[in-house]
Specification:
The protein is α+β, with helices and mostly antiparallel strands and about 750 residues long. The protein has 16 helices and 27 strands. The chain has a seven-stranded mixed sheet, sandwiched between helices. Helix 8 packs parallel to helix 15 and helix 11 packs parallel to helix 12. The structure holds dioxothiomolybdenum(VI) ion.
């Protein structure tokens, strides 16, 4: 039985639930010191004086660093790029300037963590305070066109202006989303150790060991071979651990100065200011359609805040570039505003999950304005050609997602009239949204070692961030070699292994997995060659094409040989295959590759209390071929829950005077918990996509976090007749919003 397609359980599951898995802060290292960061309460200004005398004398303190004695670090090259993965370009403890609340002003290093933290409280800082620039509807008017860092900032296809005026029905709306934080269970942690030869080993809670290594090599001007990064288990990444943040550099430099290992783990509160976050968006969208609902034009613009020193763009309007066709044309644009905050970053699913709020709520508003069913409206505007590039989609099962999802959900039984469905005291609402997610293609290397006991080992410097990476890589190698999955070990998260890409952009299965597939195929081919021409060759004279890898070895017709026998006959301890997957950049390929979804949400609204509760959810996904239905389903469930947070709970409010994030713990920042989530239904409607990956897979993880929020918001409208255009949909917004008419017919 083929290992791929089986719902096997996590290779490392037992280790994790029994506490055996060592996360970064658990790694024991003899002689390691602990760092505690002291940070600024003000968001703009400078430090006038920093008195560290008492801290330096406190018990256990080994060193106190401020900008005065911290070694200078080479300035970070801008702009921000994937190969230069610094979370923010501003280097801390290098000058007296304060650009954001929570900016480090001192680092205390002591024998114990409590000693470092206590000594930190003894430091007194005087500030010169300037009023901070914060992001809101007023200041957003000063936003500007930023330089490109991922996709083009603005786009225009066809004649969008004409398309918008040609429409018989037009929806023109502003939707806003809140600042949000990643809130991983595992706080960021880092530990640096320089050995006597000048070799640096970093243990890091990160999403890409090679990205960190390469960045450190550039920033500290040391050859990459002199840096080892290890990160075997990560307790939640969500994009927050994709790039390198200041505390990591502080630990590295402090360890070099002190000549002892230094460990820094951010406090829960520091998780809101020392690493990135998802910036708020203000999105303006115009949809125009003929009177049947066929789109004639789309215009989508988004404004988001960034730090004063970086031009991070949240590409929200991208969602409208390729999701639906529009006969006249589509235009999109992005602007940013420099504010006193740390640099925002990617957060699951960056760009798309925000943009779909505008696109897919506006589509619902259009459906009501035209008087067509929201599922039918989407089927009507489905397209097999990417409107943005004009290339055909490699595969696009949007139609299947919509129809199979609607059937499973029982959409046909829905009465389209708002406030028409009830269950006792609850108003019932049902909403739908479609989703699209980018397919990134990055190179990845892997090695597969076949061992004399007939087992195999996969080695690659990719990352397990909780998604099941160890498990699916085991399946890929087992499948290629004809082994049982439990005969394959997997080593990841270490720069001493073959170079791979970061676990970002939902790319691991398709790209890093392709590297493993190629390596496994290579070692299988070596084994076949031995079986044909090696010592005491069992299949001598046969052709390679007729040999199959099955049942823990090779087979030619009814002749078989196990790998252990084959290696023994050739006196080999191991047989090694290397994989080097180097895909064409997606943008340069013949087809447009995206994954897709159609999501169906049902909510119960208690109008008296203003409470919204998700009661049912069906997600139908086209992520290509599914390697492991269990881990894939877990991805989907995680994405839906993540979207429930976006729709109903999550927001990091900013103090408008102090310019700092207000909620800095799990009691102030709300996320969904078990009681918020009903049974969730997941359907996989995709097929093998050979353009996307040799494995036939497309991006899955972040796809599942896209379009959940608009489906829920649309359901809230259906339940209540109230159209909330500002996320999250909180009690006070439901109370203060009156029942509205939807249409603005032109
Ligand atoms: Mo994901 S936000 O690309 O780590």
């Amino acid at each position: 039985m083929s290992a791929v397609g089986q719902p096997i359980t996590r290779l490392e599951g037992r280790l994790k639930v029994t506490g055996g898995a060592q996360y970064t802060a658990d790694v024991p290292l003899t002689g390691a010191l602990h760092g505690a960061i002291v940070h600024s309460p003000i968001a703009n200004g400078r430090t006038i004086s920093i008195d560290t005398t008492a801290a330096e004398r406190a018990p256990g303190v080994v060193a106190v660093f401020t900008y005065r004695n911290m070694p200078r670090i080479k300035p970070i090259q801008k702009p921000w790029v994937h190969l230069h993965p610094y979370g923010q370009s501003y280097l801390v403890l290098q000058d007296d300037q304060i650009h954001y609340a929570g900016q480090p002003v001192a680092l205390v290093v002591a024998d114990r963590l409590d000693q470092a933290a206590y000594a930190g409280t003894l430091i007194t800082v005087q500030y010169e305070v300037k009023p901070p620039v914060v992001f809101n509807a007023e200041t957003a008017r000063g936003a500007f066109d930023p330089p490109q860092f991922l996709w083009p900032v603005n786009s225009s296809v066809g004649n969008p202006a004409k398309g918008l005026t040609d429409g018989a029905v037009r929806i023109e709306r502003v939707y806003t989303t809140a600042d949000r934080h990643h809130n991983q269970m595992e706080p960021h942690a880092t530990m640096s150790n320089w050995d006597a030869s000048g070799h640096l080993t970093i243990f890091e809670a990160c999403q890409g060991v090679f990205a960190l290594r390469d960045f450190v090599s550039i920033a500290l001007e040391i050859p990459p071979e002199k840096v080892t990064v290890i990160s075997r288990y990560v307790g939640g990444g969500f994009g927050g651990k994709a790039y390198v943040w200041p505390h990591t550099l502080l630990a590295i430099v402090a360890a070099r100065v002190i000549r002892r290992p230094v460990r820094i783990q951010l406090t829960r509160a520091q998780m809101y200011s020392m690493v990135g976050h998802q910036p708020a968006t203000i999105q303006t969208i115009t949809l125009a359609a003929d009177k049947t609902g066929k789109l004639t034009g789309i215009r989508h613009d988004s404004v988001s805040p960034t730090s004063v020193f970086d031009d991070y763009i949240e590409y929200a309007a991208n969602a409208s570039r390729s999701l639906w066709g529009a006969s006249g044309g589509i235009s999109t644009g992005h602007k940013i505003l420099h504010t006193n905050r740390n640099t925002p970053t990617v957060m699951r699913a960056p760009h798309e999950a925000l943009g779909h709020v505008a696109t897919e709520i506006a589509m619902d508003e259009l459906a009501y304005a035209v008087g067509v069913d929201p599922v039918a409206l989407r089927l009507l505007n489905d397209t097999l050609v990417d409107p943005y590039t004009g290339r055909p989609f490699s595969t696009r099962a949007m139609r299947r997602c919509l129809t199979e999802g609607a059937q499973r959900f029982g959409w046909n039984a829905r009465n389209p009239v708002p406030r028409s469905m009830r269950d006792g005291r609850y108003l019932i609402g049902q909403g739908v949204a479609g989703g699209i997610y980018t397919h990134w293609r990055w190179p990845s290397k892997a090695r597969v070692v076949l061992r004399s006991d007939g087992s195999a080992l996969v080695e690659s410097g990719m990352q397990e961030i909780g998604c099941g990476t160890y498990t699916v890589m085991r399946q890929v190698a087992a499948d290629a070699l004809g082994l049982r999955a439990d005969k394959v070990d997997v080593h990841l998260g270490d720069t001493r292994l073959p170079a791979s890409h970061s676990a970002i952009g939902s790319t691991t299965m398709s790209n890093a997995g392709a590297g493993v597939l190629l390596a496994a195929n290579a070692v299988r081919d070596k084994a076949i060659a031995l079986a044909l021409t090696g010592h005491d060759a069992p299949f001598g004279g046969a052709t390679a094409n007729n040999v199959l890898a099955v049942n823990e070895g090779l087979a030619l017709g009814d002749q078989t040989i196990t790998y252990s026998d084959l290696l023994a006959r050739n006196r080999l301890k191991v047989l090694i295959g290397d994989g080097n997957y180097d895909p064409v950049e997606e943008a340069k390929g013949p087809t447009a590759i995206f994954s897709f979804s159609a999501l169906f949400a049902e909510v119960q609204v208690d109008e008296e209390l203003g409470l919204v509760r998700l009661s049912r959810f069906v997600g139908a996904y086209d992520a290509g071929r599914i390697i492991n239905p269990r881990t894939a389903r877990s991805q989907a469930i995680g994405g839906i829950i993540w979207g429930v947070g976006q729709a109903l709970l999550e927001q990091s409010e900013t103090d408008p005077v102090m310019g700092r994030f207000l909620h800095r713990n799990y009691s102030g920042y709300l996320v969904p918990t078990n009681a918020d989530i009903p049974e969730l239904e997941v359907i996989f409607a995709g097929e093998f996509d050979p353009e996307a990956s040799p494995l036939g897979t497309k991006g899955m993880g972040e796809l599942t976090a896209v379009a959940v929020a608009p489906a829920i918001v649309n359901a809230v409208y259906h339940a209540t007749g109230k159209r909330i255009r500002d996320l999250p949909v909180t009690v006070e917004k439901l109370w203060s919003t009156t029942t509205q008419s939807n249409a603005s017919k032109s």
